[in-house]
Amino acid sequence: MNIRAINSKSTGISELKISICHLYPDLLNIYGDMGNILALKNRLKWRDIEVEISEVKTGDRVNYKKHDIYFIGGGQDQQQIMASLELQRNKEAIHKAAVDNDAVFLAICGGYQLLGHYYQPLEGDKLIGVGLLDAYTVAGDTRFIGNVTAKAKFLKRKTIVGFENHSGLTYLNKGTKPFVKVSVGHGNNGKDKTEGARYKNVFGTYLHGPVLPKNPEFCDYLISLALKKKYNCDIPLLKLNDDIETFAHKDRINAKY
Ligand code: GLN
């Protein structure tokens, strides 16, 4: 029986489809964060789930009714200035997608900082965020660079690995859940052992890598959230051969550099 038939048999839905929106690839797309879009696309296609990928670039409007997963990558302070202005223009649509429609968001580093209330760089004006995550970021005088291993209780494997490269120090306001807890590396601020933040289906993290190929279970977790939100039922994902991803993951556990 082919995968599409399995999907249909288990859900009664003949054609599963997920729409992904890549926010500002023209502004925030460093450290290979594009690999996260490829991981989502391939892990959906390998399960014969149709994928549509759209880009929202400078000047574009976000169609909050259209997409199931939103991705925004990292960037230097300079690119973040433009991205901050652009995100303000789409603030209402982004909130409607995340808060009203429970869309899945994955925001990396600079993109993560701008989902909070603001990012205050070392020089220049405060960059206003969209306030989707109840957190704020201020520039530190040290750049955190290196591998990160974190504890992820919501995953069977219990670990998440990645690579951090940021000078911003992010602080979660009271009641805001961290994404994971750091065991090796710095995470949000190098002090409180938190890494990233989560609100509903919105995930912010400092982890480059890219994070999803090295953590296939987390990638599938996001896919499952998006399918459940769209089709109002838990859709079992076909098990894939993750030998290469698992090797990459294990190779980085507790590795400082
Ligand atoms: N410019 C921000 C910082 O240095 C984000 C960097 C990034 O996206 N890697 O903290």
The kinds of small molecule bound in this structure are: glutamine
Coarse morphology: globular
SSE order, one letter for each helix or strand = HEHEEHHEHEEEEEEEEHHH
Tell me the fraction of residues in β-strands, as a range: 25-35%
Class from secondary-structure proportions: alpha/beta
Which percent range fits the helix content?
Answer: 25-40%
Helix count, DSSP H or I runs of 4 or more residues: 8
Distance between the termini: 45 Å
Mean pLDDT over all positions: 95
Q: Rg, please?
A: 18 Å
Query: Major sheet: size, sense and barrel closure?
Result: 6 strands, mixed
Strand order of the largest sheet: 2-1-3-4-12-11
Give me the count of strands: 12
Q: Low-confidence spans: pLDDT under 50, at least 5 residues? A: none
What would you note in describing this structure?
The model has no long low-confidence stretch (mean pLDDT 95). By secondary structure, this protein is of the alpha/beta class. It has a six-stranded mixed β-sheet. The termini are far apart. The protein is built from eight helices and twelve strands. Helix 2 crosses helix 7 (216-231). The longest helix is centred in the C-terminal third of the chain and has 16 residues, at 216-231. The chain is globular, with a radius of gyration of 18 Å. Glutamine is lined by residues 31, 74-77, 80, 109-110, 165-168.
